[in-house]
Inverse folding.
């Protein structure tokens, strides 16, 4: 187990280094930079002014030197300065992380809360009317675009409550924040719950056909014992993988939802930074998402050990 952890952590480190290089290089291959945008915004097309801005931002240095400066800053907790606001990047990013984290956490909570139980029910009640209804719901969740569903939720809120839910940064307390984020969380979590529901159903059906399940039934085990004690735990292995991946990608996949509901989170800020070619912000936010994805994959691997003791990692 110890040898596996060392190999897994080494692979994480190599993956993150490769991701950092890709992020840095691909961002600079995009046509235009922040100097072009700032000069165009002022209406001043003086080449000397543009050259001055490029030099002040360090964009005239070799790419390797710029990359090393960024990595060295990350290692020392210095994320650089945002080009547009001229403030430390950490001051721009840090307040937005909890907002997106709460929204993503609430969304994955709803996805698991509805996806796993409904998937189990659909499998246990296979080919019944309830199963057909749940399958239609899951297909709908996978088919509806997030922006369209978000607009429907907003229109429904206006129709039923007479107002649009507005993000309030002054909301304090757990209940107040849940009320504020519940509609966007359900909107973005609906697709994840549909995916989890379908995967849980298919995984449960596969497990219920195994020999050891038939043996348990033949020994007189109750349906509840067979379905939940014997089948569900093994059926959850692929579901845990999807839950971990969905939780990781929700952080970067909140762009549409945060935009539609006007939530000042990380994903919406990333879009604004890309539009302005604000390299420090884009690099650090994209790297943050990469770290979250890699970490969640690692945690999923560790969860396998708890869910299935038969899994052994070679030393």
């Amino acid at each position: 187990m110890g040898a596996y952890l060392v190999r897994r952590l080494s692979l994480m480190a190599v993956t993150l280094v490769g991701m950092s290089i890709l992020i840095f290089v691909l961002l600079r291959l995009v046509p235009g930079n922040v100097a072009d945008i700032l000069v165009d915004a002022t209406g001043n097309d003086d080449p000397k002014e543009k050259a001055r801005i490029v030099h002040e931002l360090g964009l005239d240095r070799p790419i390797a030197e710029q990359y090393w400066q960024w990595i060295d800053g990350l290692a020392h907790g210095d994320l650089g300065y945002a080009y547009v606001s001229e403030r430390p990047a950490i001051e721009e990013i840090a307040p937005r992380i909890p907002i997106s984290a709460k929204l993503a956490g609430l969304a994955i909570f709803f996805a698991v809360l509805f996806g796993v139980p409904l998937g189990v029910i659909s499998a246990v009640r296979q080919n019944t009317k309830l199963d057909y209804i749940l399958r239609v719901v899951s297909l709908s969740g996978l088919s509806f675009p997030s922006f369209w569903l978000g607009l429907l939720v907003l229109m429904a809120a206006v129709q039923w409550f007479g107002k649009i839910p507005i993000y309030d940064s002054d909301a304090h307390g757990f209940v107040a924040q849940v009320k504020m984020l519940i509609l966007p969380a359900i909107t973005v979590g609906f697709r994840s719950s549909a995916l989890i529901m379908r995967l849980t159903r298919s995984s449960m059906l596969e497990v219920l056909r195994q020999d050891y399940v038939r043996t348990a039934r033949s020994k007189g085990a109750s349906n509840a014992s067979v379905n939940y004690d014997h089948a569900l735990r093994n059926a959850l292995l692929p579901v845990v993988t999807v839950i971990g991946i969905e939780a990781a990608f929700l952080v970067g996949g909140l762009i549409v939802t945060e935009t539609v509901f006007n939530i000042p989170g990380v994903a919406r800020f990333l879009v604004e930074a890309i539009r302005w070619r604000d390299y420090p912000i884009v690099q650090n936010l994209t790297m943050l998402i990469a770290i979250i994805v890699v970490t969640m994959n690692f945690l999923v691997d560790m969860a396998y050990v708890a869910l299935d003791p038969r899994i052994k990692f070679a030393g």
Remarks:
- DSSP finds 14 helices and no strands in the chain.
- The two ends are 6 Å apart (CA to CA).
- The mean pLDDT is 81.
- The CA atoms of residues 244 and 296 lie 6 Å apart.
